[in-house]
Specification:
Strand content: 15-25%
Distance between the termini: 55 Å
CATH topology of the largest domain: D-Maltodextrin-Binding Protein, domain 2
CATH architecture of the largest domain: 3-Layer(aba) Sandwich
Number of domains: 3
Number of helices: 12
CATH superfamily of the largest domain: Periplasmic binding protein-like II
Order of helices and strands: HHHEEHEHEHEEHHEHEHEHEEH
Radius of gyration: 27 Å
C-alpha cells in the first residue's frame, strides 16, 4: 500500500468520479484505476461498487477512506512542520487586545534580535486561543484573561485595566470633571444606565472583566440599553466617538485617543477593573529550540 494509491482512492471518493480525481491529481484516469485495483487486491476486499450511472463506496471502503484521509493529513502536517522548522516559523494565537496593541511592539523588538524568525498570527477571542492551544493549532498564545485550564500555563506579561469611555462632548466633560472631584462611582453607574452601551461578544477577556466592573457597580447587562455587540476594539472606539453609546474597554486600546482628546476616559477605582494580559502554552509542550527562545524572551522581558 502506497501513499499515492491512497491519494487516488481518497480523491475518487471525494469527487465521486475517476475522471475528476485524475484531473485534480494531474494523472491519467488509467493510473487512478490501477491504484484502486492494487488497493483492492492487497486488501482482499471491494472498495467501490461501480454501476453504469453511479459509484458507491462499500462499508469497508468507507473505513479505508477515513483512515486514508487521516494518514494523508498526518503526512501533510509533518511536511508542513518540517518546512516551518527550516524557516523558523512560530504560530501564535492572540486575542484582540494583545494582537492589536501588544504584539506589534513585542514582535518588532524581538525581530531585531532574531531576524530569521517568522510569525504567523491566528486571531480570535481569548477562549478561541485557549482552544487552539489545546488542539495544537499553535504553540504559544496571548490572551486578555487569566485561565485556569489544568493543561495550560498562564503567565502574566502585561498590565491592563478596564476603563469607561464616552464621546468627548460638553456633557461628558462636565461629568468627568465632577467624577475627578468627588470620586463618586454613582456617576459611572448613571452614565451606564442612561446611555446606550456597546459591548464585546462572549468569549472575550475584555468582556469578562467588563462584567466584573458592572457587578461592582451593582449592574448587569440586562439593566443596560445594549446598542451593539462586536469583537473589534477599533470599531467600538469609533462608535463611541460618533456618539452611538458608551463602552467598557481595555486601557491599552484607547491610549492614542486619550492623547488626541477624542474621548472622555473614566478610570474605574475597583480592583475588578485591573487585569493582566497573559502568555499561554501547554504545560507539557515540547518546544522547538527557536520557540523556546521566544517564550523565554517574553517571560524575561515582559513581567508584571
Amino acid at each position: 500500500m502506497e501513499l499515492k494509491q491512497l491519494e487516488s482512492y481518497v480523491a475518487v471518493v471525494e469527487y465521486g468520479s475517476f475522471t475528476k480525481a485524475a484531473e485534480k491529481l494531474f494523472i491519467s484516469q488509467p493510473t487512478i484505476s490501477t491504484h484502486i485495483q492494487m488497493l483492492e487486491m492487497e486488501l482482499h476486499t471491494k472498495l467501490l461498487d461501480r454501476h453504469t450511472k453511479r459509484m458507491e463506496v462499500t462499508r469497508k471502503g468507507e473505513e479505508l477512506y477515513e483512515c486514508a484521509s487521516e494518514m494523508l493529513a498526518m503526512r501533510d502536517r509533518l511536511l508542513k512542520s518540517w518546512d516551518e522548522e527550516e524557516k523558523k516559523t512560530i504560530h501564535l494565537g492572540a486575542s484582540t487586545i494583545p494582537s492589536t496593541y501588544v504584539l506589534p511592539r513585542l514582535l518588532s523588538e524581538y525581530k531585531k534580535l532574531y531576524p530569521e524568525v517568522q510569525f504567523i498570527i491566528h486571531q480570535g477571542d481569548s477562549q478561541q486561543v485557549i482552544d487552539g492551544i489545546l488542539s495544537d493549532a499553535f504553540q504559544v498564545g496571548f490572551i486578555g484573561m487569566e485561565e485556569s485550564v489544568e493543561e495550560v500555563t498562564c503567565q502574566p506579561c502585561f498590565s491592563d485595566r478596564i476603563v469607561l469611555i464616552t464621546p468627548n462632548t460638553m456633557r461628558y466633560t462636565s461629568m468627568h470633571n465632577e467624577f475627578l472631584k468627588k470620586h463618586d462611582t454613582g456617576i459611572l453607574r448613571d452614565i451606564l444606565k442612561s446611555d446606550g452601551f456597546i459591548t464585546r461578544e462572549g468569549g472575550s477577556g475584555s468582556k469578562r472583566y467588563a462584567d466584573r466592573v458592572l457587578s461592582e457597580l451593582g449592574l448587569k447587562e440586562e439593566n443596560l440599553t445594549i446598542c451593539a455587540r462586536l469583537n473589534d476594539s477599533e470599531s467600538i472606539k469609533n462608535m463611541v466617538m460618533e456618539g452611538l453609546g458608551v463602552a467598557l474597554v481595555s486601557e491599552n486600546a484607547i491610549k492614542n485617543c486619550c492623547e488626541e482628546g477624542m474621548l472622555q476616559v473614566f478610570e474605574i477605582p475597583f480592583e475588578a477593573a485591573k487585569r493582566t494580559l497573559n502568555m499561554v502554552y501547554r504545560k507539557k509542550n515540547i518546544f522547538r529550540p527557536y520557540e523556546e527562545i521566544f517564550v523565554d524572551y517574553v517571560a524575561e522581558h515582559y513581567q508584571v
